[in-house]
Amino acid sequence: MKYEWRKKDKEIYLPKSKPTMIEVPKTKFFTLKGKGNPNSEAFKEHIKTLYTLSYTIRMMPKKGITPEGYFEYTVFPLEGVWDLDEEGRRLENLDKDRLVYKLMIRQPDFVTDELFWQAKSTAAKKVAEDHLNAVQLEKIEEGLCVQCMHVGSYDSEPKTFSLMDEFCDENNLIRIDKRHREIYLNDARKTPSEKLKTVLRYKVLDRE
């Protein structure tokens, strides 16, 4: 039976438009660090690289290679952890050129280091070598978080973050740092900005 993240992991990927608390387990990801404006060509290349690698793993059985433990699944959505550099944090308004990010796509548990390098070798014909060499296979555990579904343009996210901050105050939670995670459920190239769905999440501690 095909593993569909929209059905199996609703709590993680399809929260409601009201803030909720969640414990996010340790998961494998292909990750790629970058900095600067997300409207840049480099950012687009980062996304292309991660998806190329992810689909290379997904399609291996059709190339005659079936990894141990393989199962049918839908490729997971693109995610990004966002921060600002030191100068960007001092500015009153957001300067997108000062953004620092780590993009990632979740991988099934059967993806090993050996499989990762095999996928890199296959993908080398399709993506830039410098981007490909920068990709890592990481296990990431977010732990206790607050999250919320944001519907609308990325520029209107502060409204949803305000709701999340209010939720934290009401539930005796404290945000750990300024970094936050975004999970992109639509293709921004094909979806009107007012219909974009993005999961917003940040790590918290319970004050109690």
What's the structural blueprint in terms of helices and strands?
Layout: H1 5-8, H2 10-13, E1 20-35, H3 41-58, E2 78-84, H4 86-90, E3 99-107, H5 113-123, H6 129-134, E4 136-151, H7 157-170, E5 173-175, E6 180-184, E7 197-206
Helix pairs in contact: 3-5
Domain GyrI-like small molecule binding: 18-198
InterPro entries: GyrI-like (IPR029442), GyrI-like_CCH_Lin2189-like (IPR008319), Reg_factor_effector_dom_sf (IPR011256)
Protein name: GyrI-like domain-containing protein
**Count of beta strands:** 7
Question: How many structural domains can be distinguished in the coordinates?
Answer: 1
Mind telling me the CATH superfamily name?
A: Regulatory factor, effector binding domain
Rg is 18 Å
| Element pattern in H and E | HHEHEHEHHEHEEE
Q: Examine the coordinates and then state which fold CATH places here, giving the name of the CATH topology.
A: Multidrug-efflux Transporter 1 Regulator Bmrr, Chain A
Strand order of the largest sheet: 1-3-2-6-7-4
- What is the arithmetic mean of pLDDT? 95
Into which percent range does the helicity of residues fall?
A: 25-40%
Number of continuous helical runs? 7
| Overall form | globular
CATH architecture classification name: Alpha-Beta Barrel
Give the biggest beta sheet: 6 strands, antiparallel, barrel
CATH class type: Alpha Beta
Strand content: 25-35%
What is the end-to-end distance? 42 Å
Oligomer type: single chain
Structural class determined from secondary elements: alpha+beta
The stretches of 5 or more residues where confidence is low (pLDDT under 50) are: none
Protein name: GyrI-like domain-containing protein
Domain GyrI-like small molecule binding: 18-198
Organism: Metabacillus rhizolycopersici
InterPro entries: GyrI-like, GyrI-like_CCH_Lin2189-like, Reg_factor_effector_dom_sf
